[in-house]
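tool_call predict_complex ligand=S-adenosylmethionine
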Amino acid sequence: MPPTFGAPAPSGPRWELEVRPGLAPFARDELAAHPGVTPLPPEAAGETDDAHAAAVPFTCDGPPPDLATLRTATSLQRVVPFDVPRPKALLGDAAHRTLAAELRAVRMRDVFHGLRVEAAGADTPVVQRLRAAWGEAVGLPDAPEDGDLRVRLRRAPPAVGRGWEVLIRTTPRPASVRPWRVVDRPGGLDACVAAAAWRWVGTPADQRVVNLMCGGGTLLAERAALGPAAALVGVDLDADALEAAAANLGAAGLAVDGDLGPAPDRAPARARATVRLRLADATATDLPDAAFDVLVADPPWGDAVGAADDLPDLYAGLLREGARLVRPGGTAVVVTHALRAFEAALAAAGDGWRADGTLRVFQGGHRPALHRLRRAGDGGTPPRRREGDLLDSAS
Ligand SMILES: C[S@@+](CC[C@H](N)C(=O)[O-])C[C@H]1O[C@@H](n2cnc3c(N)ncnc32)[C@H](O)[C@@H]1O
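tool_result ok
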Protein backbone atom coordinates (compact mmCIF):
# COMPACT_ATOMS: atom_id res chain seq x y z
CA MET A 1 0.00 0.00 0.00
CA PRO A 2 1.52 3.38 -0.90
CA PRO A 3 2.37 5.55 2.10
CA THR A 4 0.07 8.44 2.88
CA PHE A 5 0.74 11.92 4.17
CA GLY A 6 1.63 11.69 7.80
CA ALA A 7 2.87 8.08 7.44
CA PRO A 8 5.38 7.36 10.19
CA ALA A 9 8.74 8.58 8.98
CA PRO A 10 11.99 7.19 10.38
CA SER A 11 12.39 8.64 13.86
CA GLY A 12 15.30 10.93 14.67
CA PRO A 13 16.99 13.53 12.52
CA ARG A 14 17.75 12.19 9.06
CA TRP A 15 21.06 12.45 7.25
CA GLU A 16 22.47 11.14 4.02
CA LEU A 17 26.01 10.43 2.94
CA GLU A 18 26.81 10.94 -0.70
CA VAL A 19 29.27 8.33 -1.94
CA ARG A 20 30.74 7.22 -5.22
CA PRO A 21 28.91 4.21 -6.64
CA GLY A 22 30.68 1.10 -5.39
CA LEU A 23 31.71 2.68 -2.09
CA ALA A 24 28.40 2.51 -0.17
CA PRO A 25 29.33 -0.69 1.76
CA PHE A 26 32.53 0.96 2.99
CA ALA A 27 30.72 4.14 4.05
CA ARG A 28 28.10 2.06 5.89
CA ASP A 29 30.88 0.24 7.65
CA GLU A 30 32.52 3.50 8.70
CA LEU A 31 29.18 4.86 9.92
CA ALA A 32 28.61 1.79 12.09
CA ALA A 33 31.46 2.90 14.34
CA HIS A 34 29.59 6.07 15.38
CA PRO A 35 27.34 6.05 18.43
CA GLY A 36 23.71 6.99 17.88
CA VAL A 37 23.70 6.13 14.17
CA THR A 38 20.88 3.95 12.83
CA PRO A 39 21.30 2.98 9.18
CA LEU A 40 18.25 3.24 6.94
CA PRO A 41 17.66 1.00 3.93
CA PRO A 42 18.97 2.37 0.62
CA GLU A 43 15.36 2.98 -0.55
CA ALA A 44 15.12 5.72 2.07
CA ALA A 45 17.37 7.80 -0.16
CA GLY A 46 15.25 7.25 -3.26
CA GLU A 47 16.39 7.05 -6.84
CA THR A 48 19.23 9.20 -8.07
CA ASP A 49 19.69 10.17 -11.69
CA ASP A 50 23.32 11.01 -10.97
CA ALA A 51 25.47 8.14 -12.29
CA HIS A 52 28.39 9.40 -10.22
CA ALA A 53 26.73 9.38 -6.83
CA ALA A 54 24.99 6.95 -4.53
CA ALA A 55 23.49 7.61 -1.12
CA VAL A 56 23.76 6.09 2.35
CA PRO A 57 20.80 7.27 4.48
CA PHE A 58 20.73 7.12 8.28
CA THR A 59 19.28 8.71 11.37
CA CYS A 60 21.35 9.91 14.26
CA ASP A 61 20.57 10.74 17.87
CA GLY A 62 22.72 13.70 18.74
CA PRO A 63 25.27 15.35 16.49
CA PRO A 64 26.09 13.60 13.22
CA PRO A 65 29.49 11.96 12.71
CA ASP A 66 32.31 14.28 11.76
CA LEU A 67 32.69 13.96 7.98
CA ALA A 68 36.48 13.96 8.39
CA THR A 69 36.16 10.56 10.08
CA LEU A 70 34.14 9.09 7.19
CA ARG A 71 36.89 8.86 4.64
CA THR A 72 34.97 6.95 1.96
CA ALA A 73 32.06 9.45 1.81
CA THR A 74 32.00 12.42 -0.54
CA SER A 75 29.61 14.56 1.45
CA LEU A 76 27.18 14.63 4.36
CA GLN A 77 23.73 16.10 3.85
CA ARG A 78 21.06 17.04 6.35
CA VAL A 79 17.70 15.75 5.14
CA VAL A 80 14.74 17.93 6.14
CA PRO A 81 11.40 16.32 5.30
CA PHE A 82 8.21 18.30 4.70
CA ASP A 83 4.83 16.66 4.66
CA VAL A 84 3.54 18.91 1.89
CA PRO A 85 1.99 18.13 -1.48
CA ARG A 86 4.07 20.54 -3.58
CA PRO A 87 7.16 22.78 -3.26
CA LYS A 88 5.06 25.95 -3.18
CA ALA A 89 4.01 25.00 0.36
CA LEU A 90 7.64 25.44 1.46
CA LEU A 91 7.07 29.19 1.11
CA GLY A 92 4.55 28.98 3.97
CA ASP A 93 5.58 30.47 7.28
CA ALA A 94 6.13 27.31 9.36
CA ALA A 95 8.03 25.44 6.63
CA HIS A 96 10.17 28.48 5.89
CA ARG A 97 11.08 28.96 9.55
CA THR A 98 12.04 25.29 9.90
CA LEU A 99 14.23 25.34 6.84
CA ALA A 100 15.81 28.71 7.61
CA ALA A 101 16.88 27.36 11.00
CA GLU A 102 18.39 24.25 9.40
CA LEU A 103 20.22 26.32 6.79
CA ARG A 104 21.59 28.67 9.42
CA ALA A 105 22.79 25.77 11.55
CA VAL A 106 24.86 24.48 8.61
CA ARG A 107 26.03 27.96 7.63
CA MET A 108 27.35 28.59 11.15
CA ARG A 109 29.68 25.59 11.03
CA ASP A 110 31.76 26.65 8.00
CA VAL A 111 32.48 29.49 5.57
CA PHE A 112 30.14 29.61 2.58
CA HIS A 113 30.02 32.11 -0.30
CA GLY A 114 26.84 31.49 -2.24
CA LEU A 115 23.64 29.45 -2.31
CA ARG A 116 23.16 26.82 -5.04
CA VAL A 117 19.72 25.29 -5.19
CA GLU A 118 19.40 22.12 -7.28
CA ALA A 119 15.86 21.15 -8.17
CA ALA A 120 13.89 19.90 -11.12
CA GLY A 121 12.51 23.10 -12.60
CA ALA A 122 15.09 25.27 -10.84
CA ASP A 123 13.98 28.27 -12.90
CA THR A 124 10.26 27.99 -12.31
CA PRO A 125 8.75 30.95 -10.43
CA VAL A 126 8.18 28.86 -7.28
CA VAL A 127 11.75 27.60 -7.09
CA GLN A 128 13.02 31.12 -7.85
CA ARG A 129 11.04 32.41 -4.88
CA LEU A 130 12.42 29.61 -2.70
CA ARG A 131 15.97 30.46 -3.80
CA ALA A 132 15.43 34.10 -2.91
CA ALA A 133 13.82 33.29 0.45
CA TRP A 134 16.50 30.78 1.49
CA GLY A 135 19.33 33.05 0.30
CA GLU A 136 17.92 35.89 2.38
CA ALA A 137 17.55 33.61 5.42
CA VAL A 138 21.27 32.78 5.39
CA GLY A 139 22.57 36.06 3.95
CA LEU A 140 24.10 34.45 0.86
CA PRO A 141 23.78 35.46 -2.80
CA ASP A 142 22.01 33.15 -5.22
CA ALA A 143 24.84 31.39 -7.10
CA PRO A 144 23.27 28.67 -9.27
CA GLU A 145 26.54 27.63 -10.95
CA ASP A 146 29.15 27.67 -8.21
CA GLY A 147 27.39 28.30 -4.92
CA ASP A 148 29.02 26.27 -2.16
CA LEU A 149 26.04 26.01 0.17
CA ARG A 150 24.36 23.31 -1.90
CA VAL A 151 20.68 22.66 -1.32
CA ARG A 152 18.68 20.00 -3.15
CA LEU A 153 14.93 19.76 -3.38
CA ARG A 154 13.43 16.39 -4.20
CA ARG A 155 10.27 14.35 -3.79
CA ALA A 156 10.34 12.21 -0.67
CA PRO A 157 11.30 8.64 -1.56
CA PRO A 158 8.16 6.47 -1.32
CA ALA A 159 9.89 4.31 1.30
CA VAL A 160 9.81 7.15 3.84
CA GLY A 161 6.53 8.88 3.07
CA ARG A 162 5.06 11.37 0.64
CA GLY A 163 5.88 15.00 0.35
CA TRP A 164 9.12 16.84 -0.35
CA GLU A 165 12.58 16.86 1.13
CA VAL A 166 15.33 19.44 1.26
CA LEU A 167 18.91 18.17 1.45
CA ILE A 168 21.57 20.58 2.74
CA ARG A 169 25.20 19.67 2.13
CA THR A 170 27.04 20.39 5.36
CA THR A 171 30.40 21.44 3.88
CA PRO A 172 31.35 23.94 1.18
CA ARG A 173 33.41 21.40 -0.72
CA PRO A 174 33.08 17.65 -1.21
CA ALA A 175 35.09 15.76 1.39
CA SER A 176 37.01 14.02 -1.40
CA VAL A 177 38.84 17.36 -1.79
CA ARG A 178 41.27 16.64 1.02
CA PRO A 179 43.07 19.43 2.87
CA TRP A 180 46.34 17.53 2.40
CA ARG A 181 46.14 17.76 -1.42
CA VAL A 182 48.19 20.91 -1.86
CA VAL A 183 49.55 19.81 -5.25
CA ASP A 184 47.14 18.36 -7.77
CA ARG A 185 48.45 16.14 -10.56
CA PRO A 186 46.73 14.82 -13.65
CA GLY A 187 45.39 11.33 -13.02
CA GLY A 188 45.23 11.71 -9.23
CA LEU A 189 43.13 9.02 -7.60
CA ASP A 190 39.96 10.09 -5.82
CA ALA A 191 40.80 10.14 -2.11
CA CYS A 192 37.54 8.37 -1.15
CA VAL A 193 38.37 5.53 -3.56
CA ALA A 194 41.84 5.31 -2.04
CA ALA A 195 40.36 5.18 1.47
CA ALA A 196 37.98 2.40 0.38
CA ALA A 197 40.93 0.44 -1.04
CA TRP A 198 42.53 0.53 2.40
CA ARG A 199 39.37 -0.53 4.18
CA TRP A 200 39.16 -3.41 1.71
CA VAL A 201 42.71 -4.53 2.48
CA GLY A 202 42.84 -3.77 6.21
CA THR A 203 45.35 -1.57 7.98
CA PRO A 204 47.11 -3.38 10.85
CA ALA A 205 49.73 -1.28 12.61
CA ASP A 206 52.57 -3.68 11.71
CA GLN A 207 51.81 -3.44 7.98
CA ARG A 208 54.69 -2.68 5.61
CA VAL A 209 53.37 -0.87 2.57
CA VAL A 210 54.86 -0.20 -0.84
CA ASN A 211 53.02 2.05 -3.28
CA LEU A 212 54.41 1.55 -6.78
CA MET A 213 53.68 4.39 -9.26
CA CYS A 214 52.64 6.53 -6.32
CA GLY A 215 52.14 9.77 -8.30
CA GLY A 216 50.97 12.55 -5.97
CA GLY A 217 50.74 10.18 -3.00
CA THR A 218 46.98 9.71 -2.58
CA LEU A 219 47.18 6.06 -1.51
CA LEU A 220 49.98 6.79 0.98
CA ALA A 221 48.23 9.81 2.50
CA GLU A 222 44.99 7.88 2.93
CA ARG A 223 46.81 4.87 4.43
CA ALA A 224 48.54 7.09 6.97
CA ALA A 225 45.21 8.72 7.87
CA LEU A 226 43.83 5.34 8.91
CA GLY A 227 46.51 4.61 11.49
CA PRO A 228 50.15 3.72 11.98
CA ALA A 229 52.06 1.41 9.65
CA ALA A 230 55.45 -0.26 10.08
CA ALA A 231 56.74 1.14 6.79
CA LEU A 232 55.42 3.38 4.02
CA VAL A 233 57.41 3.48 0.78
CA GLY A 234 56.38 5.19 -2.47
CA VAL A 235 58.02 4.71 -5.89
CA ASP A 236 57.61 6.74 -9.07
CA LEU A 237 59.90 7.39 -12.02
CA ASP A 238 58.78 11.00 -12.41
CA ALA A 239 60.69 13.42 -10.15
CA ASP A 240 57.84 15.97 -10.35
CA ALA A 241 55.39 13.32 -9.15
CA LEU A 242 57.63 12.58 -6.17
CA GLU A 243 57.89 16.27 -5.32
CA ALA A 244 54.09 16.52 -5.48
CA ALA A 245 53.80 13.46 -3.24
CA ALA A 246 56.30 14.99 -0.80
CA ALA A 247 54.29 18.21 -0.62
CA ASN A 248 51.00 16.38 -0.15
CA LEU A 249 52.34 13.95 2.43
CA GLY A 250 53.99 16.81 4.31
CA ALA A 251 50.64 18.62 4.37
CA ALA A 252 49.12 15.41 5.71
CA GLY A 253 51.46 15.67 8.71
CA LEU A 254 54.02 13.08 7.58
CA ALA A 255 57.77 13.36 7.39
CA VAL A 256 59.17 12.50 3.98
CA ASP A 257 62.63 11.48 2.88
CA GLY A 258 64.23 9.65 0.00
CA ASP A 259 65.18 10.72 -3.52
CA LEU A 260 64.03 14.32 -3.31
CA GLY A 261 65.55 17.70 -3.98
CA PRO A 262 66.35 19.97 -1.01
CA ALA A 263 63.30 21.40 0.75
CA PRO A 264 64.05 22.47 4.31
CA ASP A 265 60.43 23.03 5.28
CA ARG A 266 59.36 19.50 4.34
CA ALA A 267 59.23 17.93 7.78
CA PRO A 268 56.23 18.88 9.92
CA ALA A 269 57.14 19.74 13.50
CA ARG A 270 55.55 16.57 14.89
CA ALA A 271 55.31 14.04 12.08
CA ARG A 272 52.97 11.06 12.57
CA ALA A 273 55.21 8.80 10.47
CA THR A 274 57.95 8.90 7.88
CA VAL A 275 57.34 8.05 4.23
CA ARG A 276 60.29 7.02 2.10
CA LEU A 277 59.95 8.12 -1.56
CA ARG A 278 62.06 6.44 -4.24
CA LEU A 279 62.74 7.68 -7.77
CA ALA A 280 62.75 4.41 -9.71
CA ASP A 281 61.12 2.32 -12.39
CA ALA A 282 58.41 0.44 -10.52
CA THR A 283 58.99 -2.65 -12.64
CA ALA A 284 62.64 -2.90 -11.57
CA THR A 285 63.27 -1.41 -8.13
CA ASP A 286 66.19 -2.22 -5.88
CA LEU A 287 63.92 -2.68 -2.87
CA PRO A 288 64.56 -5.91 -0.96
CA ASP A 289 62.76 -9.21 -1.65
CA ALA A 290 59.59 -9.99 0.34
CA ALA A 291 59.96 -6.77 2.34
CA PHE A 292 56.29 -5.72 2.20
CA ASP A 293 52.95 -7.05 3.35
CA VAL A 294 50.92 -4.95 0.95
CA LEU A 295 51.51 -3.46 -2.48
CA VAL A 296 49.17 -0.81 -3.80
CA ALA A 297 49.46 0.60 -7.31
CA ASP A 298 47.49 2.97 -9.47
CA PRO A 299 49.27 2.65 -12.84
CA PRO A 300 48.51 5.17 -15.60
CA TRP A 301 45.03 4.76 -17.07
CA GLY A 302 46.26 5.46 -20.59
CA ASP A 303 44.48 8.78 -21.11
CA ALA A 304 45.39 11.65 -18.75
CA VAL A 305 48.63 9.83 -17.89
CA GLY A 306 50.50 7.28 -20.04
CA ALA A 307 49.59 5.58 -23.31
CA ALA A 308 47.09 2.72 -23.59
CA ASP A 309 49.50 0.71 -25.78
CA ASP A 310 52.08 0.63 -23.00
CA LEU A 311 49.75 -0.80 -20.38
CA PRO A 312 50.09 -4.56 -21.10
CA ASP A 313 53.87 -4.44 -20.61
CA LEU A 314 53.55 -2.14 -17.61
CA TYR A 315 51.03 -4.46 -15.91
CA ALA A 316 53.26 -7.48 -16.61
CA GLY A 317 56.29 -5.70 -15.12
CA LEU A 318 54.30 -4.51 -12.11
CA LEU A 319 53.00 -8.00 -11.31
CA ARG A 320 56.48 -9.51 -11.72
CA GLU A 321 58.20 -6.93 -9.52
CA GLY A 322 55.31 -6.97 -7.05
CA ALA A 323 55.63 -10.74 -6.64
CA ARG A 324 59.25 -10.20 -5.67
CA LEU A 325 58.54 -7.38 -3.20
CA VAL A 326 55.50 -8.80 -1.40
CA ARG A 327 55.96 -11.62 1.08
CA PRO A 328 54.18 -14.94 0.49
CA GLY A 329 50.56 -14.60 1.64
CA GLY A 330 50.69 -10.81 1.24
CA THR A 331 48.22 -8.66 -0.68
CA ALA A 332 48.12 -6.27 -3.62
CA VAL A 333 45.50 -3.83 -4.79
CA VAL A 334 45.91 -2.56 -8.33
CA VAL A 335 43.65 0.15 -9.77
CA THR A 336 43.18 -0.29 -13.51
CA HIS A 337 41.19 1.16 -16.31
CA ALA A 338 42.24 -1.30 -19.03
CA LEU A 339 40.49 -4.27 -17.47
CA ARG A 340 41.09 -6.85 -20.20
CA ALA A 341 44.76 -5.97 -20.49
CA PHE A 342 45.14 -6.38 -16.73
CA GLU A 343 43.32 -9.69 -16.68
CA ALA A 344 45.55 -10.96 -19.50
CA ALA A 345 48.67 -9.84 -17.62
CA LEU A 346 47.42 -11.55 -14.47
CA ALA A 347 46.73 -14.80 -16.35
CA ALA A 348 50.21 -14.62 -17.88
CA ALA A 349 51.79 -13.96 -14.46
CA GLY A 350 51.29 -17.61 -13.57
CA ASP A 351 51.10 -18.74 -9.97
CA GLY A 352 52.62 -15.67 -8.37
CA TRP A 353 49.30 -13.94 -7.70
CA ARG A 354 45.77 -15.21 -7.07
CA ALA A 355 42.80 -12.95 -7.90
CA ASP A 356 40.84 -12.20 -4.71
CA GLY A 357 38.02 -9.90 -5.78
CA THR A 358 37.26 -6.91 -7.96
CA LEU A 359 35.62 -3.69 -6.91
CA ARG A 360 34.16 -1.49 -9.63
CA VAL A 361 34.01 2.21 -8.82
CA PHE A 362 33.32 5.51 -10.57
CA GLN A 363 35.71 8.39 -10.88
CA GLY A 364 34.75 11.30 -13.06
CA GLY A 365 33.79 9.84 -16.43
CA HIS A 366 35.72 6.63 -15.75
CA ARG A 367 34.80 3.27 -14.31
CA PRO A 368 38.08 1.88 -13.02
CA ALA A 369 38.34 -1.42 -11.18
CA LEU A 370 40.26 -2.24 -8.04
CA HIS A 371 41.74 -5.74 -8.21
CA ARG A 372 42.68 -7.40 -4.95
CA LEU A 373 45.33 -10.07 -5.34
CA ARG A 374 46.90 -12.53 -2.91
CA ARG A 375 50.52 -13.43 -3.20
CA ALA A 376 50.99 -17.17 -3.48
CA GLY A 377 52.58 -18.87 -0.50
CA ASP A 378 51.67 -20.18 2.90
CA GLY A 379 51.06 -16.76 4.43
CA GLY A 380 52.84 -17.92 7.57
CA THR A 381 54.43 -15.39 9.87
CA PRO A 382 56.86 -13.49 7.69
CA PRO A 383 60.36 -12.72 8.87
CA ARG A 384 59.94 -9.17 10.13
CA ARG A 385 62.45 -6.42 9.79
CA ARG A 386 62.49 -3.33 11.88
CA GLU A 387 61.44 -0.26 9.93
CA GLY A 388 65.00 1.06 10.20
CA ASP A 389 66.38 -2.11 8.57
CA LEU A 390 63.88 -1.84 5.75
CA LEU A 391 64.57 1.81 5.15
CA ASP A 392 68.33 1.26 5.34
CA SER A 393 68.21 -1.47 2.73
CA ALA A 394 65.76 0.57 0.67
CA SER A 395 67.99 3.61 0.52
C1 LIG B 1 47.72 7.43 -12.47
S1 LIG B 1 49.21 8.11 -11.87
C2 LIG B 1 49.15 7.71 -10.15
C3 LIG B 1 48.30 8.69 -9.44
C4 LIG B 1 48.35 8.53 -7.96
N1 LIG B 1 47.61 7.35 -7.50
C5 LIG B 1 47.77 9.77 -7.29
O1 LIG B 1 46.64 9.73 -6.81
O2 LIG B 1 48.41 10.81 -7.34
C6 LIG B 1 50.40 6.97 -12.46
C7 LIG B 1 51.81 7.25 -12.03
O3 LIG B 1 52.62 6.17 -12.50
C8 LIG B 1 53.90 6.70 -12.78
N2 LIG B 1 54.58 5.70 -13.62
C9 LIG B 1 54.26 5.31 -14.86
N3 LIG B 1 55.10 4.33 -15.28
C10 LIG B 1 55.94 4.08 -14.24
C11 LIG B 1 57.01 3.18 -14.03
N4 LIG B 1 57.39 2.30 -14.97
N5 LIG B 1 57.65 3.23 -12.85
C12 LIG B 1 57.29 4.09 -11.88
N6 LIG B 1 56.29 4.97 -12.02
C13 LIG B 1 55.61 4.96 -13.18
C14 LIG B 1 53.64 8.02 -13.42
O4 LIG B 1 54.78 8.86 -13.31
C15 LIG B 1 52.45 8.51 -12.59
O5 LIG B 1 52.88 9.33 -11.53
